[in-house]
Amino acid sequence: xVSLTVxxxxxxxxxxxxxxxxxxxxxxxxxxxxxxxxxxxNHQKYVFFDLKDDxxxxxxxxxxxxxxxxxxxxxxxVVRAVPKVTxxxxxxxxxQSVQPVGEGNLRKSFELLRKKLSDEGLFDDARKxxxxxxxxxxxxxxxxxxxxxxDFMKIANERWGGVRFSVVNVMVQGxxxxxxxxxxxxxxxxxxxxxxxxxxxxxGGSADDLSVFNDELLVRKLASSRVPxxxxxxxxxxxxxxDLAADVRASTPSNAAQLLLPDKQEMIRSIKHQLRGxxxxxxxxxxxxxxxxxxARSNALDSWRQHVEELLSDVQSRIRLISEYDPELAxxxxxxxxxxxxxVGEVIEIQTNKALMKARVEAYAERTNN
Length: 370
Prior knowledge:
By secondary structure, the chain is an alpha/beta fold. The protein has helices spanning about 10-25, 105-120, 145-160, 175-190, 205-210, 215-225, 240-245, 255-260, 265-325, 325-330; strands at about 30-40, 45-50, 55-65, 75-85, 90-100, 135-140, 165-170, 195-200, 230-235, 250, 335-340, 345-350, 355-360. Strands 1-2-3-5-4 form a five-stranded mixed barrel. Strands 7-6-8-9-10 form a five-stranded parallel β-sheet, with helices on both faces.
């Protein structure tokens, strides 16, 4: 029996294309966990490293823009990649994303990226903006099914009513989460009316769950946002690089609502307290003015009293002076008053204290002072 099977014949490039097509159909993209070795970056564009375990090694390639968290030799990671045979016949993985595995490796990657971005000034307080005191239009980026989002909205509506919220629903963990949040920020920045604040909300979780908020491109996007950014990510003990890049960092989603909006009940109490203070100050000022008026009136009365007393004393002095020249007083002391023409032969009247007499002048002479 003669076989009719024909062995296919390919050129090298055709064969490589068929192999790669077969790999893509068989696997698509795959996740592979291993240890990084021989890590290097060429021309600040291309990243090369080997991924290995105890029994095998595979070459990996990616661009620096796809490397969202720092890695180094000895770090255990999970890569999402497409298997491929290169044009020069070498099997490798074209890496789409890489994620450190385990809290120790996540922490190392976190510290490396934190230092890099800090050295660039992304976390400097000088570049951070203040939040408006009572915003009326707020954009929220979160998973609307999460407890963190529910806590934020509940506290926000309890504290201050009438705020307009524009909510963008995104994944807050997983491989696509960082890109979704970046696109959400870009969408908000493209609005005709910009919100006053962007709030990024995510409830608590493990270090791996929160690692999306240590994504370099996402951190840079929040740092360069046209709108002030408030983050409420995880619990109080959690701090992500997005928190460090944000204009204001809240410890929890609930705390984000507290930092964003004033408490209307507390404000009412504060206003009442201020009004009581103003009322007390007004009463105190009126009392002080009354005291000044009373003091002025008392001073005026004292001045008039002194003036009257001085006038009375002057009148009494004048009365005493007049009394000293009263003829009746002189007569009482034994003197006599003579009326008439004191010439020889003239009749004159002589008045004493007890009698009125008439007499004729017999002699007259002028008195001289010797």
